From TrEMBL:
This is Putative phosphoesterase EDD69_10413. It comes from the Bacteria. Belongs to the 2H phosphoesterase superfamily. YjcG family. InterPro entries: 2H_phosphoesterase_YjcG-like, Cyclic_Pdiesterase, YjcG. The active site is at residues 34, 115. It comes from Thermolongibacillus altinsuensis. The keyword Nucleotide-binding does not apply. It is an enzyme of class 3 (hydrolase). One of its GO terms (molecular function) is ligase activity. A motif (HXTX 1) lies at residues 34-37. It holds the Pfam family 2_5_RNA_ligase2. Gene3D superfamilies: Cyclic phosphodiesterase. A motif (HXTX 2) lies at residues 115-118.
Amino acid sequence: MKCGIAIFPSKKIQDFANSYRKRYDTHYSLIPPHLTLKNTFEVEEDQIESVVKELHKIAAEIEPFPLRITKFSSFYPASNIIYLKVEPNESLTTLYNKLHSGPFQEQTEDAFVPHITIGRDLSNDEFSDVYGQLKMQKVHFEETVDRFHLLYQLENGSWTAYETFHLGKEQG
């Protein structure tokens, strides 16, 4: 099955992102606003429980951490994707690295740029117009991340949570 790992921000941030995504993101109906920690990867049905077990171990090693969103940005000229920039921090980077090493190791071409996509598949003209307006807006959100999610893709292409992993040592 196709899986991915992501952080879903608070409803407040999701509502803000969705106010743009519904117009500019072709994946709006497939997944809520999220910060991707691990892109799509295949897991055999009989391996899913070992993946879940490993993710619980990783989650226990990382304490909750701050998530700061500071501005609109883009991947232009590589692509016409517009996103909310998430400021990197040591805990977020450590979590990302743990999800790309050991049993989760893979060759990745891209550097980790934490972000929440709000626009994709825009024409050059539309991108220039929309990004030109957005990059002048002030954006500031700050909250604490205390969980991440293993997602899987449904037959219709949408994504849903398979399991949620709480950061830090389990209570009790």
